[in-house]
Amino acid sequence: MSEEKSLNFIEEIIEDDLKDGKYNSIVTRFPPEPNGYLHIGHATSICLNFGLSKKYGGYTNLRFDDTNPVTEETEYVDSIKEDVKWLGFDWKNELYASDYFEQLYEYALKLIEKDLAYVDDSTSEEIALLKGTPTEIGKDSPYRNRSKEVNLQLFKEMRAGKYKDGERVLRAKIDMAHPNMLMRDPILYRIKHAHHHRTGDKWCIYPMYDMAHGQSDSIEKVTHSLCTLEFVPHRELYDWLIEKLEIFPSKQIEFARRNVSYTVMSKRKLLQLVQENHVQGWDDPRMPTISGMRRRGYTPEAFREFCDRVGIAKRDVLIDISLLEFCVREHLNRVALRRMVVFDPLKVVITNFTEGVEILEGEDNPEDEKSGNREIPFGRELYIEREDFMDNPPKKFFRLFPGGMVRLKYAYIIRCDEVVKDENGVVQELRCTYFPESRSGHDKSGINVKGTLHWVEQTNAITAEVRLYDRLFEVEDPSNEEGDFKDYINPDSLKLEKTVYAEPALKNARLEERYQFLRKGYFTLDTKDTNQRLVFNRTVTLKDAWAKEQKKR
Ligand code: ATP
Ligand code: MG
Question: C-alpha 454: how far from its chain's center?
Fold first, then answer.
């Protein structure tokens, strides 16, 4: 079944490295900064890292990149672990960059010993001023030629807490005329008297990204360190530090960030949406976070399929969210239990059905041979969807109208004999006849009808609340529009149906199950709001209504 796929560029690098004996096996890592919840972009990175190590028989570490004390929180660590597990991946080791602080400090000392780092007393403005520009070389800091001894002493004093924030930094001594601005004596350590979520008040100096990431990779013997394109200019420094420190040669490889249309991905923006109450939290089903999508009913299988189809690229791309929705629909079509739910009821009285109810059967899922049947009561009083009836129908209206016939799913063909209206002309009920010979699967009636409707029997119907979600933004790329991205929030991204009527089988709805409400979409129970009452979130519509809508404009 699986067709031969050609290797992507990362797989090519890995296979070459294995062939050349550069590495004996593959180790990757997923390195989130615990400063927010994971989103779809992270999900693709998770699938990539774990997918590669699995393919080549290696393993992946989960490493929290927690070197910035100010923004990180344990709440985020927990949610990240939950999300990775939910996507279906197991990490080999759970690690924290902050566990390496002592080792990183030793590395810094080693650089000073080798005369490859120095303490600079300049202010950040002075440092920026001497840095030059891409077209103009920089100038040496007046502190650049301090002796090793002085540098060692000052750096130790920095660690000991002798100086205030910003008073001094440790810089690499590379080349102030280097064409790559990042190689112009980059800052390696800064002073920050701040409480860290794991190391507490032990440290008041913290390594910069470049002094931490590659070294952590190396400590863990990560072979291929995958990151997004903005780190391309950092690669030279990554390699320089590994070479000068003479440590395990991890290799940085960059790939394009995956962004998805009709949403935003930056954690800073997602945080704004939460803090300013545009959504009801990080796991609001409209959020592009993994926790939000999980609550909305997306499945790990669909995510993994999506990541596979997206592949990897060397240029940033905006991926159409319809692709993710397509993957979700495809998976849900295979696993969802079929149920009937009427959102906007119109009463139907079956005049020739005399008494009680008849128990019919309906397949749980025609796409799944192993799925069973559920019981569906049929009776004298039913509900159909109001929009499925028209008094004066246009041509090709295959639903119900006066004198017209339709099939009720899993049940019988009915004919509309009489329309009962109130004094304002609003339809109150339809009086219909059913044809006992026409039962689904046993139809001997010889009647042909074009339309099939979903329905529920009134006395056994249960009620539920339904939440219909639409895209959170009205434009493809809100971050790229004029003005604030929040100006483009879709005001109709959530529509509530407070009371809908469902067939009784849904009484036992379970969180792990997925449902297809016939002709309505895919739904899942909400994880939060299920006290006493049933609340369903619409995961996705049955068809891509959005694409159609766009074409009309
Ligand atoms: P954000 O900009 O959303 O805050 P980030 O890159 O700062 O994201 P990290 O926690 O540092 O978030 O990311 C962890 C890993 O996930 C990194 O390896 C990063 O490259 C990857 N990643 C983050 N966003 C995306 C994305 N949109 N597409 C692919 N990979 C991503
Ligand atoms: Mg980051």
Answer: 32
CB 438 within 8 A of CB 405: no
Do 10-255 and 267-337+464-552 fold alike per CATH? no
**Among the bound ligands, the one closest to the CA of 255:** 1
Using the predicted structure, report yes or no on whether residue 1 has a pLDDT greater than 50.
no
- Return the CATH fold of 10-255: Rossmann fold (3.40.50)
d(CA 524, CA 519): 15
pLDDT given at position 72: 66
3-state helix, strand, coil in the chain (%, to 5): 30, 25, 40
Distance CA 437, CA 413 (A): 9
Reported in sequence order, the residue ranges of 101-162 that DSSP labels E, i.e. its strands, are 117-120
Determine the pLDDT at residue 545.
61
Side-chain-facing half-sphere of 429: CA atoms under 13 Å: 12
Q: Residue 527: pLDDT above 90?
A: no
Alpha helices in 375-439, H assignment, sequence order: none
What fold, for 341-454? Ribosomal Protein L25; Chain P (2.40.240)
Whether the Cβ atoms of residue 172 and residue 116 lie closer than 8 Å to each other: yes
| pLDDT of amino acid 2 | 47
The tokens describing 147, both together, are: 């002796």
Instruction: Map out the domains of the chain as residue ranges.
Output: 10-255, 267-337+464-552, 341-454
The dihedral through the CA atoms of 66, 67, 73, 74 has a sign that is positive
Q: Return d(Cα 345, Cα 386) in angstroms, integer.
A: 6
Asked if pLDDT for residue 4 goes beyond 80, the answer is: no
Tell whether ligand 1 has an atom less than 6 A from the beta carbon of residue 408.
Answer: no
Give 196-213 pLDDT, tens digit per residue: 989 999 999 999 999 999
Residue positions annotated with a catalytic role:
33, 257, 267
pLDDT in tens, 264-280: 999 899 999 999 999 99
Cβ contacts of residue 415 below 8 Å, gap of 6+?
A: 403, 404, 405, 432, 433, 435
Chain mean pLDDT for the chain:
94
pLDDT at 27: 98
> Which pLDDT tens digit goes with each residue over 430-473?
999 999 999 999 999 999 999 999 999 999 999 999 999 999 99
Instruction: Give residue 352's pLDDT band: very low, low, confident or very high (50, 70, 90).
Output: very high
Tokens of 433: 């006849």
- Establish whether residue 266 lines the binding site of ligand 1, counting it when its CB lies within 6 angstroms of any ligand atom: yes
Q: What pTM was computed for the model?
A: 0.91
CATH fold of 267-337+464-552 reads Ribosomal Protein L25; Chain P (2.40.240)
For residue 419, what are the β-bridge partners?
430
Q: At what angle do helices 101-113 and 209-219 cross, to 10 degrees?
A: 110
* β-strand pairing of 345-350 with 381-385: antiparallel
Contact present, 346 and 384 (Cβ < 8 Å): yes
Whether the CB of 45 sits within 6 Å of ligand 1: yes
Q: Residue 289 corresponds to which tokens in the numbers above?
A: 């976070």
Whether the CB of 257 sits within 6 Å of ligand 1: yes
* Ligand 1 mutation target, pool 45, 267, 307, most atoms within 8 A of CB: 45
| Phi–psi pair at 75, nearest 5 degrees | -55, -40
